[in-house]
Write a structure and sequence with these properties.
- This protein is of the alpha/beta class.
- The chain folds into two domains: 8-160, Type I PLP-dependent aspartate aminotransferase-like (Major domain) (Aspartate Aminotransferase, domain 2); 170-292, Alpha-Beta Complex (Aspartate Aminotransferase, domain 1).
- It is built from ten helices and nine strands.
- It has helices at 8-27, 50-63, 87-94, 98-101, 132-143, 150-160, 170-196, 220-228, 233-245, 272-292, and strands at 34-38, 66-70, 104-109, 123-128, 201-202, 211-212, 215-216, 250-251, 264-267.
- It has a four-stranded mixed β-sheet with strand order 1-2-3-4. It has a three-stranded antiparallel β-sheet with strand order 6-9-8, with helices on one face.
- Strand 1 (34-38), helix 2 (50-63) and strand 2 (66-70) form a beta-alpha-beta unit.
- Helix 1 packs parallel to helix 2 (50-63).
């Protein structure tokens, strides 16, 4: 379930929810083996602090579960107050018993960031404190792939071994990377400011990743219309949005959300020169929708 993690009380709520979920699952006879977290976050776009990561690592250690750290958006950070920090780095700095006592799988990819932008496909897993037999099985599974993504592998090699000072492309690589992230920062601000200017819409600032996840407080008449159409209220809203504007979004019910709340996920990836038009289209639709169902 997505939570806004930029406030201490919300983080405490999220951590308590995790503990409750594990307790309830075990009480129901389920064998909880692992937990995935995404940092920077999808769909909420929040970046975890060092303190947040320490709590997750302690949680995994105490509950004896494997941590799977999806860190594929690590290049996509749009504020300076909370930079990306890897779970492995924090775990190492915490010392024992966490440094060697927590099983951690870290994921990264070329498909995000400024290089791939969801076009190129390729990634890797780094395994820390994982049993050698498990590592061997992982290599076996990877090795039986008969049709490797050659272009993706080449792109990954560039990601992990970027141009170095003195290389012909070093300066242009740094400049283009910085320009792209600066543009995404502006787009993140434009989108979240646009959402927060609308009646009945609140949206945390997109600290990282590629998405905004606004909460939309739908009028009772809109909820009733959705029920009559046999749709979840946020699904109903998103379908009306795409029909009216061509803007495709993902309803919050597709991710899990607090009962009685409604969200949608949208990306900040449209080109900067068309982002203002995107915000204006959304505004006009939302104002018309709210007026219709008041």
């Amino acid at each position: 379930m997505p939570y806004a993690l930029d406030e201490a009380n919300n983080w405490s709520l999220s951590l308590e929810s995790l503990k409750k979920s594990v307790k309830e699952a075990r009480a129901a006879g389920k064998n909880v083996r692992g937990m995935v977290f995404i940092n920077p976050g999808n769909p909420t776009g929040q970046c975890l602090s060092v303190a947040n990561l320490q709590e997750l690592i302690k949680f995994a250690h105490d509950e004896k579960i494997v941590l799977l750290a999806d860190e594929v958006y690590q290049e996509n950070v749009y504020q300076d107050e909370r930079p990306f920090v890897s779970a492995k780095k924090v775990m190492s700095q915490m010392g024992e018993p966490y440094k060697s006592g927590v099983e951690l799988l870290s994921f990264h990819t070329v498909s995000k960031g400024s290089a791939g932008e969801c076009g190129l496909r390729g990634g890797y897993i780094e395994m820390t404190n994982i049993h050698p037999g498990t590592v061997e099985e992982m290599y076996k599974i990877a090795s039986i792939n008969l049709s490797p993504n050659t272009v993706g592998q080449v792109a990954m090699s560039v990601l992990v071994n970027p141009p170095k000072p003195g290389d012909a492309s070093h300066e242009s690589h740094k400049r283009e990377q910085a320009e792209e992230i600066a543009s995404l920062r502006r787009r993140a601000r434009l989108v979240t400011d646009g959402f927060n200017s609308l009646e009945g819409v609140t949206c945390n600032f997109t600290e990282g990743a590629m998405y905004s996840f606004p909460q939309i407080r739908l009028p009772p008449k809109a909820i009733a219309a959705a029920k009559a159409a046999g749709k979840q209220p946020d699904v109903f809203y998103c379908l009306r949005l795409v029909e009216a504007t061509g803007i495709s979004t993902v309803p919050g019910s597709g991710f899990g959300q607090e009962p009685g709340t409604f969200h949608l996920r949208t990306t900040i990836l449209p080109r900067e020169e068309v982002m203002a038009a995107f915000v204006e289209k959304f505004r006009k639709f939302h104002e018309g929708f709210m007026a219709q169902y008041k």
